[in-house]
Amino acid sequence: RMIFSDYPRYAEVDSYMERMASTYPNLVTLVNAGPSFEGRAIKYLKISTTNFTDASKPIYFMDAMMHAREWVTTPVALYSIHRLLENRRPEDQDLLDDIDWIILPIVNPDGYEFSQTDNRLWRKTRSVNLNVSTECIGVDANRNFDIEFNTTGVFTNPCSNLFPGPYAFSEVETQYVRDILLEYLPRIQLYNDIHSHGNYVLFCYANKTLPPNAAHIHHIGAAMGAIMDSMKLPQARFYLVGNSGLVLYPTSGSADDYAQVVGVPFSYTMELPGYGYEFMVPPSYMDHMVKETWEGIAVSARLARIHY
Ligand code: 0X9
Ligand code: ZN
Q: Ranges for the Peptidase M14 domain (predicted)?
């Protein structure tokens, strides 16, 4: 399919989501969370056989493209939609019947479009920092959540890629993620914040402490890593599964920690493969990468459901 042969721009993602909503009206609700800083609609799909009314079903919430340059992440979200709706295998019917899905393919559309047109390695949002005297633009969305805000793994200089923002949830883009988490909280069983690169399945907390259900969290993370490793290309690293602060680095204000602390039982950050190209993975890798990652998503959905 066209959309999985090259990186889709914001407008193509938008029309794909609109098309899914009109083609599968009984399964899909398209929600416009609101405008980005620059006014682009931030949309997500709700996928459910029971219109999200059956509280006995867990919700799987995934989002992608919180960091603009991490281009491989949005195709994974779109491919998940594709496998649930357009190309569902008979053996995957349980994923549709037993689980409700919230899929947000582009958290940070302003940053993504800027990385397409101006600066390929742009990471942050594109908000103007009015309350600090600076020319520098943007906030690291994954430092902007209200969890130990502005403490670790940040730089208070607004020109830094790790600028957490003037205050927690200063960015509308992180507000929308927060609002989804809080609106569906008792039913969101797993939150998967998709990033790149480096082949990690990370879990909480970034301050190196563990939630009480860490054994189950690790079990699901390890299953994800194993199935994705079983399909890995020779150029890719093996997945490293572990506590984000221990196996990567400590941070504050990150989406995964926020989701876990407000009550999501299973909260992960996936760092997808870079294949030696870091953020600039050639589109020829995309077809394999989305299929391999979908297997990780599918196993995490099935295992998380057992614990619901
Ligand atoms: O630093 C980040 O925000 C993530 N890595 S990235 O290269 N995609 O920017 C890792 C976040 C992992 N989670 C926490 N440290 N809480
Ligand atoms: Zn990232």
A: 6-304
